[in-house]
Every structure is written in C-alpha cells, then in structure tokens.
C-alpha cells in the first residue's frame, strides 16, 4: 500500500524557480561551484563570534560572501592536501560555525569523505565512531578538545588532530589557489553521518553527494523559500540540519550561526533577521511550556485565539499560505521576537495537536512538518499549512522523487488489508544504500531487492493517502498473559498529563503490568491516579496501565545524553540503564500486587464453580 504524493501546487505560496533548484546529478563540489557562480557577492555564512565561533561576541552578524567562502575553501584544501588522499575520512568535531562548512567543502575538494560527529554523543560513542570510520584527520573545536583528549589514549589508531581555530588563522592569513579534484561522481560516498543511537551504538550511514543533495531538494520542493536567512543551531552532524542548510545555500540563502547554541537563541534570531527556523518537537515543546507558564490564567483565552486563527487560515487560503491573519496582534508578544520569520519547519518526528496549533499561529509564519531518517537523507514525507492532520502522529504525504509504502508487519500483530497498518518503507534518490558493519571496509547494503529501505517504524495509511506514525517495531512487549503492550503509545498518553515532560514506560515478558518513570520540572500531585485515569480514558485496556510509577523532577532532562539524543529523541536503552535500580523496585512493587489480584480471581472462579454445581443438582 503506497502513500499519496504531496500536491505541490496547493498549500504553498512558492513558485518553482528551476535554475535555483539543486541538481542531485552533481557532486557537492560541483553544486558549491554553481552556487558561487550564481550568487557571487551575496551573503553565505554569518557569525557573531568569528569563523570558528571562538572570538569575542559582537552585537551584529558578519557575513562571508559566496566568493569569499570559495577562497577560504581553496586555501584550506591546499593545507589539508598535505594530510589526506582520495577517500580518506576526515572527522569534523566542532560546534556549529562557518569553519565547519569551510572544512566540509575542503574535504570534498580533495575527494575525501567527511565524518560528522555530535559533540554530545559521549566518550564511548565518539570513540566508536572514530574507530569504525578510521578517520585519518580530526578537525577539533575548542569545546571538544577535552573529550578528544580523553579518547585518544584508547583509540586503536593514531589520527592527525587539527585545531579548528588554527585552521581559521591559517586561511585568514594565507591565500592559495587550489583546483578541486574531480575524480568522484555523484554516486560515490561523500559523507558519513551517524544515526541518533536510540537503540544502541550509532549507525554509520554512507551517504553520496546524490543522497545529500536530493535529501534537501526533495523535502524543499515548493516548500522552502529562495534566498533568505536560516539560523543554524541544531547539530550540523544531524542529517536534517545539514541537508536543509545545503539546500538553503543552493537557493542563494545565507546561514546565520547561533552564537552559543540555544542560550542566546532569541537574541541571535533578532540580530540575524532569520526568515526560516527549523527545529524538532522536543525543542518546540520547551518553547511552548515557557509561553504557557508566562501566560498563566490567560492561557485558555490565548488558546481560543489560536483556534480562531487556524479556522481563519482554513477558510482563506491566502492566510494559510503566509501564516498571517488580521488577528495577529494577539500573538505579538511572541512573534515580535521573530520579526522577519516566514517559515517554521518541524522535523524528526510528528508533533502533537496542541504543539502544532501553537506553531501554526504564534510565530505568524507558515508551518511545515516532515518525517525522515539519517538513512533516508532526512527525506520521506511532509505536510504543510492547514492540510488535514488525522491525529497527533500524522507524518504527511510523499515528497517528490520518493515512494513510501507500508508492508505487512512481520511480527503478525496486524492484518495489513484490514487495519492499513504496517512497516513504513522508503525508496528515493536520497536513501543511502550502504552502512558500515564493523569496519570501514565492511559495508552492507540496507535496501531490499526493490531498493526500499525498511525503517523499523510502524505506520497507518490514512483515507486521504497520508501516513501516520504508530510506533517503533521494537517497542512492543508481550506480557506473561499474552497481552501486547505498545510502550511508546502509553508514553505519549502519559505525557499529556499537566506537568509531565517525559514518560518512560517499560515491561518485561515475565511481568503482568508495565511500570513508568516520569520526568518533570515540578512535582505532580497524585501522579499514579492521574496515570490510571488518562490511560483508561484513552481507550487502552487495563493491562496497559502502569501499576507503579516514580516521579523525578527539578532537572533539565534534555541535556542528559544518556537519556536523549542531540535531536531530543529518547534513548530507551539509556533510560533502562540510568534508572535500572528504580525500575527493578517498581517491578518488585508490581509483583507484590499480583498475588492479591490472583487470589481474588481464584476466589471468584471458585465461587462460580460452586454455584454451578449447586444449580446442576
């Protein structure tokens, strides 16, 4: 069963400008050279604290033009040519800054392979990433030096380490002409990006220039603006951020780098005048929670205006296509922080209804949401404007040059023909063909015989041809009585409780009920009772209700890299390890409740049998 293709002409104000669209048949170097030819003196990369993000913070952005970036890339390519050869891997381990893109393009000039590392993966995973790729050179940022120093003595090889601030000094005090090598094609490996590691070690995905360029081009088709300013604050090692930035530059847009991550986010947005802002649901949720807290008792009235605005956008397409309506003065306290914003994009996973309506209205800009994975080049499904969302987990319609289908669940939980539920599979020119198994020379194909990638995500095909996310295949547990538990679905229901930020539900096959760890900023009264009520009210059976729970509060949980990935996805294995003692205690509490429950059942059965025999006599 195939998802429907997105109707690109509706729900969009963007006219197609063919000569500004990315060409997946080019290498990344060829695409960059085309940018320089097209946009020359236009702004490309901007920063408030220097090329490597380590200079004194200023109150304005200083931009490099496309021509200036090309000169720096040529100079750095000349320097790096002393250290790397064709297909050598170069790890870039730094916070977002102009030097990351200059380094990336220089590696491509030399026909090398760029390896992007999250600076929040943790020592063990970073060592794993370096060893599995055997990165010959590591370009290191100032804030990442200590992590690397901890890892270097344990590495199974000796890399060349280059300080990114030294490279900045070199390219700004020297000028070298260097012609890009042209041995590679669009189908040769250009980048290695790692999956978020939610279910174990990060997966090393081998992406070609075609995958990288097509990932942004397919998602951005009549979807993202031409020539504007995009703020770079999500990790550049994330495929969603990286491909969208490259797309934005291909269309003549400028990238403004956040000065200190999310710390100075609002000030960076004001000073840079960003026109597009991308994020992930858990980042948006933090903003939503902050606005709700500041609004206080006026929140219900504020929500009423949100729904009124959505209704107006539904009635009048001109409002839907811009995100602006006559009642926007109500949202001025929020939108004034984003004076030039025209488009908000939420990716990685689906957004809840309350969060979606908040994003559709309060920023006074168009909203688009999408679904993709590292393995698919961030591309697969998207939805925009006031198009119908069937539920909180609606992912959208198929992007251009892409096919998405659902196939029968190999666990046998669902009948595809009856339920329209199955595993989501993606085929596209953005989908990576190979991943690394245990060493760079040992690659395995991740596609089936028809070139579809099996995502491991379960989805449901909606009546209009869109797809909604159901759950991960591996987040279903069969309890001792034979009942199937959808752990992720239960978590999302519990997270609807006022004050709950994150819920982690777990169970073992020998258990008779799940248990729950709840993370919040403040203590929630009568939590267990609220969990019981909301899970039952949602329509789930009684065996889905966690019979024991523990609440932890008073921390900024999203910063914990044992629990969340840099893109704010839960690491279920991490929760299991971090809260192992708490979980075992909760499971013990459940097991103590079970005998009492069993005795009642036995007593009822016994009485029923006795009554039956008396009646028969």
From TrEMBL:
Matching InterPro entries: AMP-binding_CS, AMP-dep_synth/lig_dom, ANL_N_sf
GO CC, any one term: membrane
Keywords, sorted A to Z: ATP-binding, Ligase, Membrane, Nucleotide-binding, Transmembrane, Transmembrane helix
Domain AMP-dependent synthetase/ligase, first and last residues per copy: 58-433
Keyword Metal-binding carried by entry: no
Any coiled-coil regions, as ranges: none
Species of the source: Spironucleus salmonicida
Protein's UniProt name: Long chain fatty acid CoA ligase
PROSITE patterns, alphabetized: AMP_BINDING
This protein's record includes keyword Transmembrane: yes
Transmembrane intervals: 298-316, 597-616
